[in-house]
Amino acid sequence: MLNQKLFKIEKEDSYTKHTRLIKEYKASHPEADIISLGIGDVSFPVPLPVIEAMKKACDELGSMDTFQGYGAYWGIESLRRAIAENDYKGLDISSEEIYVGDGTKTDCTALLELFDAGAKVLTGNPTYPVYRNGAFAMGRDVYECSCDEEFKMTIPMEHYDVIYICSPCNPVGNAYTKSELKKWIDYANAEGAYIVFDNVYRDFAQSLGLPKSIYEIEGSRTCCIELHSFSKNLSFSGTRCSYFVLPKEFGEELHSLWRERTINRFNGASYVAQKGAEASYLPEVQEIIKKNIEVYKGNGKLLRNTLLEAGFSVTGGIDAPYLWVGTKDRMECWEAFSFFLEKLNIVTVPGAIFGSKGRYSLRISALGTRENTEEACRRILEFYEKDN
């Protein structure tokens, strides 16, 4: 019998449709100068010291004296230790609590194997579609949480078992404060629930009151699994490397079971990618990452100010590389997407891809080049100044 929940995966409001429409427009308008503010890929290359580390790792694979094969199922020890010492300095997280994967998209779905098939999974609306569709692929029931006027999930009255929270958030670009997250942690501990905390964009979170890790907050170690990847800060969107933390408070029995599960389900992330990720903690690479993030944040500020000046409602663009933009005159998001593509030659993402509450919104990315961002802003202002 087929997994019937697979048929719940949205096909009409999907990235597949989005990609097809862009491809068709480019084919019929080869002269168009298209600027992509859509899919959140990066615009900086992998830093050279990281490339050198990966080249060295490749050389190691060329000799049986240094060859790396099976064995590091949950990550090479040197990378896990570097993560613990740098990303969790002062938070009492050890390398034994860190599991390395090949991308947060994979990790956030695979983690559902920790929980019973009947566990109730809660997501926001709008939300990163992988949470919803990945749960469907695993045959799970998914429920949607109501959100406030800032698109932040509100604490439910009902019981749920697994809650996905992304902060800083893809798609809406906002970020939860420590006090807001504490309420969710209290709920999870009271309900015996677990929070899967997607912290991929933490390097963008620089406003006061925002945590760099969920484990800065009291009570989190008994109910929170934190995810992070190297896709955006290290430009590893194609290289693929990530990690998540299972705190020791979850119990040694669970860790033992998860490691046994991993040996049977996953042979580990690429050794070459892991050595590159390990090099990301070199001081010179950290400086490069910092400068790149500042460019992206500058893009976000420029886009936010431009869109506000053009009369749009905007959330985000401050502590995340995404902006959630309300369409004018309640224009349907797919119509607005086509409007931006055809009139301005700018690619956006229809909000409906992220859930029904995105029907009248677009997601815009600040991860492009500064040059393209400035040109996109010029086009937007020029068009709407004429329009007004």
At a glance:
The chain has 388 residues and is α/β, with parallel strands linked by helices. It is built from 11 helices and 13 strands. It folds into 2 domains: 9-38 and 285-387, Aspartate Aminotransferase, domain 1 (Alpha-Beta Complex), CATH 3.90.1150.10; 48-282, Type I PLP-dependent aspartate aminotransferase-like (Major domain) (Aspartate Aminotransferase, domain 2).
Description of the structure:
By secondary structure, the chain is an alpha/beta fold. It has two domains: 9-38 and 285-387, Aspartate Aminotransferase, domain 1, CATH 3.90.1150.10; 48-282, Type I PLP-dependent aspartate aminotransferase-like (Major domain) (Aspartate Aminotransferase, domain 2, 3-Layer(aba) Sandwich). 38% of the residues lie in helices and 13% in strands. It has eleven helices and 13 strands. The protein has helices spanning 15-28, 48-61, 77-87, 104-110, 129-137, 178-191, 252-265, 271-279, 283-309, 333-344, 370-387; strands at residues 35-36, 98-101, 120-123, 141-144, 162-166, 194-198, 224-229, 242-245, 313-316, 322-326, 346-347, 349-350, 361-365. The protein has a seven-stranded mixed beta sheet with strand order 2-8-7-6-5-3-4, sandwiched between helices. Strands 9-10-13-12 form a four-stranded antiparallel beta sheet. A two-stranded parallel ribbon has the order 1-11. Helix 2 (48-61) runs antiparallel to helix 8.
